[in-house]
Amino acid sequence: MVAYFHGVNTSLPLQLVDCPRDAIQGWPYPITTEDKLAYLRTLLRVGFDWLDLGSFVSPRAVPAMADTPKVLQQLEEEAIWDQTTTRALVIVANERGVRDAVEFESVSALGFPFSISPTFQERNTRADQDEAMRRLDVATNACVQHGKDLVVYLSMGFGNPYGDAWAVADTVAWGDRLLETFDPSVISVADTVGMATPAQVKDVFGQCVPRWGQNKVGGHLHMNPLDGMRKVEAAHEAGCLRFDGAIRGVGGCPMAQDDLVGNAPTERLVEWAEQKGLWKAKSSHALDQAQSLAADLFG
User: Fold this and answer.
1) Residue-level pLDDT at 262
2) For 116-241, where are the E strands, in sequence order?
3) How high is the pLDDT of residue 257?
4) I need a labelling partner for 259 at 20 to 30 A (CA). Which of 1, 93, 124, 194 fits?
5) What pLDDT was estimated at residue 197?
């Protein structure tokens, strides 16, 4: 039976994005390049649609990502991308990051964080919203020139802890503006500090998905493990078909607050999606191995 909510089809296949970058950058202890590579090789065998595996940002701001070029170079030398259908996404936040990221053939998409909260935009990228829009223009042109997708992460899409004004209409309006100005491949609405309720999630996606199109919308939902999958289920009921997660739910944005709220646990996303017949891992054995490695890496 085909299921519809407000005119969107909730029976279509999902896209799952695993985010080891988000997990590693939020972990308080250093992880060696060799351990990262072993983890990424395993994740690449699982069959995720996308792997958010690194970022080209200031090593002073995010030291855990300083070796991203080395990681990408090694994976390219191993020709590992010829052995997987998974595509690579990296995060950029300024012109230098854009310039460096597009030089890697294996990078299929650039992810750019744009915040509805002016406070968080400054805190996360050392730029106000006007400057972020200018940088997004640079990223857009570079993606077109080099054949990359552009994913805009709409940070603080469900409110913020800073007292900046927010309403559902703000998320919709900013998404409208970003689509009209840059036409990114995806706008991934982010619950950056995990403060959204399932009802808010359903409300936001219920308004955004019909306006932007199901193929244009993603969900990057941070959550407390006790919340279970309620936010993901709420987003999907409203038509969202693309979800980010991290094994064991590790991670969160280190620029957002002191107490990190973790990612959606990828293994639970997979279990939920497979039960619904909306996604299937290519290798359950590799997923088990990834969970074992994550237990070693993240304690």
Assistant:
1) 87
2) 149-155, 186-191, 217-221
3) 53
4) 93
5) 95
- Reading the block at residue 243, the tokens are 């979800």
- Measured distance CA(243)–CA(278) in Å, rounded: 12
Give the distance, in angstroms, between the CA of residue 234 and the centroid of all CA atoms in the same chain.
Answer: 18
Tokens of 107: 């990078």
Find where tokens 């491949």 sit: 185
Segments of the chain scoring below 50 in pLDDT: 1-2, 4, 258
| Bridge partner list, 188 | 153, 218
**pLDDT tens digit string along 89-98?**
999 999 999 9
Domain count, the chain: 1
Contact yes or no for 216/179 (Cβ under 8 A): yes
Whether the CB-CB separation of 221 and 232 falls below 8 Å is answered with yes
pLDDT, position 251 = 80
How crowded is the C-beta side of 67, counted as CA atoms within 13 Å? 14
What is the C-alpha separation between 261 and 224, in angstroms, rounded?
6
* Helical axes 284-298 vs 33-46, angle rounded to 10°: 150
Whether the CA torsion 33, 38, 39, 40 is positive or negative: it is: positive
CATH at 194 = 3.20.20.70
Structure tokens at 38: 């072993």
